[in-house]
Amino acid sequence: MSDIGVDRWVEESGDRHEQYSGWTAPARRLFDSIRPGWRLGGFVFLLALFPILAPQGTVRVGITALLLVMLALGLNVVVGWAGLLDLGYVAFYGFGAYFYAIVASDQLPAHWPSWIAIPVIVVATALLGALLSLPSRRLVGDYLAIMTLFFAQVFVELVRNFQRLPGISPDFDLTGGPNGITGVTPWSLFGFEFNTFNRNFYLLLALLVLLVVGLHNIDNSRTGRAWRALREDTLAAEHMTTPVNRLKMLAFAVGAAIAGLTGTIFASVQVGVFPNNFLLVFLITIYAALILGGIGSIPGAVVGAIVVAFAPELLRNPGTGSWLFYIGLVAILVGTLKKWSLVAGIVAGVAAFGFLVRQTALTIWDDSILGVANDTFVARIVDGWLLILGQHQDVVANYAFVLTVVGGLGVTVTKGWWRAVVAIPTIYLAILVWENKLALQPAVTRQLLFGGVLMVMMAVRPQGILGTRRVEIT
Amino acid sequence: MENFLQQTVNGLTLGSVYALLALGYSMVYGVLKFLNFAHGEVYMFGAFAGYGVLTVLGGPSALMVPVWAAVALMFVASMAVASGIGLALERFAYRPLRNASRLAPLISAIGASFFLQAAALLLFSANSRSYEAPELIPIDTAMTVGPIDVWAVRILVIVTAVVLMILLTWWVQRSRVGKAVRAVSFDSEAAAMMGIDVDRVIVVTFLIGSALAGVGGVMVGLVFGRIFHLMGFVAGLKAFTAAVVGGIGSIPGAMLGGLLIGFAEAYTTAYISSTFQNLIVFALLITFLLIRPSGFLGRPELAKV
Predict the structure, then answer these.
(1) Exposed end of chain B (fewer CB within 10 Å): N or C?
(2) What is the per-residue DSSP string for A286-322?
(3) A224 and A362 share a domain?
(4) Is residue A116 predicted with pLDDT exceeding 50?
(5) Are residues A326 and A224 part of one domain?
(6) A284 falls in which pLDDT band (50, 70, 90)?
(7) b vs e for A253-268, b when ≥16 Cβ sit within 10 Å of the residue's Cβ?
(8) A135 to chain B: which residues are within 8 Å by CB?
(9) Is A395 part of a structural domain of the chain?
(10) CB B206 within 8 A of CB B79
(11) Residues of B numbered 7-46 whose beta carbons fall under 8 angstroms of chain A's beta carbons: which are they?
(12) Beta-carbon separation of A451 and B112 below 8 A
């Protein structure tokens, strides 16, 4: 019935999309009915408005978001399509950034013009990626993952201690050690210098369009199909005469090249590079973006990266962070309970529990244990209900945090009424921890969030927000 | 010569810790064929549990109980906390993904590792703590071995590690559950058909592996002093390298690999460069993965269709 060489999976994708269910189904069908070109066009149009409409100072955040989008797209090639768990990805990004910073600053006497530096760096990063993929010829998932993770670690160490390398003169500090490199010349093409945030934003947007179109075409090409075959079953693919090793190397090289290119822009926007830009934290951020959006899907990588880039910005300020927290809490409740009466019951339960705890605590001790509430709208409302602690705030919040985690795990294994019995104190404790500790430490909150996202998404929705569920054939 | 012997003792101490950690990686890999990235964090929490006990007992200089009791309690507490976290990881992060795609548990494990790191940062802040072991067990309580003096704490660490490894070997070779662990790691499907409760074996493996990691955490605290929320990451990488060098899935291999990595690190620090010890271990890992992926004592894995 089908021609040889036609991808049945692609052919039948229309039928599968008919199977959407739930309240998001109409929206998703509508989304699918738009042609990919129009989808991209509309999206780019919306993004292009961002620097015009966004409040002052947030263009910088937009740039961070677009950088993350590019990185997530590159990672998607290696992890999403070829199925190779590359944990050294952030090192390619760092390599590109450092390479650009070195050739475009006073570190070396030679200032390379951008039109030479950028292609050279992209090719060099691709070669480095290909080199790192060599062990993948013999290694399966886990080994490859840990080896690349080690590579990322060693990269940061080399950059930090370059001048201590044996055989290198202590005066020759190519990477600037822990202080990094400053005074990097921004990108400059055809006499046009990308030295403002707005210009860089549109530069990134243009590159993003090229990248998305290019990747979309690769995805639907022979190579894209071969990568998918490789991901599903390497052994079978090899027996179908797919050149497995070459494809793995290509995936690594393409991913690395994208990361390297993004790195050059990062160095140019930041006008400097520092070893701490390329730590594990950032790798996890890229992974969280890709997995949240949907691994293996281009729109997924884009949307996931935008969400992940903006969430920490909201967290940074306790006011907006609180909105995010409480809306997230309600969204989780609504999403899991699916019935308004149950949601109302739980909320009432939490409120009653809160009053009970506060009254008990104030009877045993006195008002002196209370501290000052955060200066946010919601915090002032819950102040008369929650325990905002003065002294011992840290210790109590620590215990509350541990209990929240235990309670959260407990909710997943209890059923029926017991679940409500566990959930009500857990929600109360979560709010307690938020107001007493997390709201004040946005960096840690972000880490907890991203680590949690990876775990929860894998368990609940491995295909991400926009991905389609993969059929596992065993 | 004296320096060399000192470094050998140093390597032996480090190696004992890496071996204990590598055992956890290796055993879990054996039964689940999957790499528990969060193992290093389990070890870190073990170290903090030991510190917690020490603080509750009045701190190293004003202990309320005899020193030996304090140290024993620290080990017990670290084992309890570490195995608790290990079991929670198994139950909530890995078990739901038993039948998912190959990447899913790995990604979940990375997430768990990162979550635990952040949790430690939240709970203990970024400041490093110190066991201040020299106040606990004075530095001059030393045993003379040949031309050098070895601090009692180092001897304690090495002896504890050796005893634990002997117990583990005996347990795996002789006991009923130990045999089940070996059967599952040889072929889990066949083991299940023979009536072995695979889930229970996995739980036991996590329990023991994590408890060993917790012990390792306290040992590091005792010998090297400083503990901090990021200590598990690099130690985990090195212990994994140890497991690979020895042959992943093999219990004696993990011990051998741990000692080798310990020696490699001690001698590199002493004679080559203290900054690039991680680079050396990394080079070792690459070499082994390329030349002999099954390690010293592992059996080569055959791809079956």
Answers:
(1) C
(2) HHHHHHHH-TT-HHHHHHHHHHHHHHHHHHHSHHHHH
(3) no
(4) yes
(5) no
(6) confident
(7) bbbbbbbbbbbbbbbb
(8) 286, 289-290
(9) yes
(10) no
(11) 29, 34-35, 37
(12) yes
Kindly state whether residue A147 falls inside one of the protein's structural domains: yes
Tracing tokens 């690395």 back to the chain, one arrives at: A256
Q: A1 in a domain, yes or no? A: no
Closest CA to A286 of A73, A143, A104, A139: A73
A153/B293 CB distance under 8 A: no
Write out residues 222-261 of B within 8 Å (CB-CB) of A.
233-234, 237, 240-241, 244
Closest CA–CA distance from residue A90 to any residue of chain B (Å): 15
Whole-model pTM? 0.88
Give the start-to-end residue ranges of the domains of chain B. 2-230
Which amino acid is present at A313? Answer: E
For A65-87, the pLDDT digits (tens) are 999 999 999 999 998 888 888 88
Residues A338 and A214 in one domain: no
What does the pLDDT look like over A201-226, one tens digit per residue?
888 899 999 999 999 999 888 898 89
Tens digits of residue pLDDT in A10-60: 666 666 655 666 666 777 777 777 777 787 888 888 888 887 777 777 788
**Pair (A297, A400) in one structural domain:** no
- Name the β-bridge partners of A193: A188
- Chain A interface test: which of B33, B41, B99, B107 (most A C-beta within 10 Å): B107
Determine the structural domain holding residue A175 and report its residue range: 34-316
Question: Which residue, chain included where needed, has tokens 């090192």?
Answer: A91
User: d(Cα B95, Cα B107) in Å, to the nearest integer?
Assistant: 13
How many domains does chain A fold into?
A: 2
Task: Determine the 3-state secondary structure of A144 from DSSP.
Answer: helix
The DSSP letter of residue A368 is G
Whether B118 has its CB under 8 Å from any CB of chain A: the answer is yes
Structural contact between residues A444 and A438, judged by C-beta atoms closer than 8 angstroms: yes
Q: What pLDDT, in 10s, does the model give residues B228-242?
A: 998 988 888 889 888
Partner residue opposite B285 with nearest CB, options A150, A401, A459: A150
On whether any CB of chain A is under 8 Å from the CB of B148, the answer is: no
Q: Evaluate whether B61 touches B135 at the Cβ level (below 8 Å).
A: yes
Cβ atoms of residues A179 and A271 within 8 Å = no
Contacts of A267 (CB under 8 A, 6+ apart): A96, A97, A98, A100, A101, A104, A184, A273
Position B73, amino acid: L
A27/B127 Cα distance (integer angstroms): 49
B62 and chain A in contact, CB less than 8 A = no
Mean pLDDT of chain A: 82
- Tokens 């690349």 belong to residue: A148
